[in-house]
Amino acid sequence: MVRIIIIGYMGAGKTTVGKALSKETGYPFYDLDWYIETRMRKSVSQLFAERGEEGFRKIEHAMLHEVAEFENVIISCGGGTPCFFDNMDYLNQQGHTVYLKADPEVLRYHLLLGKGVRPLLQGKTPEQMLEFITEQLAKREPFYTKARHILDVNKLDSYEKVKISVSRIRELTGI
Question: Is pTM beyond 0.85 here?
Answer without folding.
Answer: yes
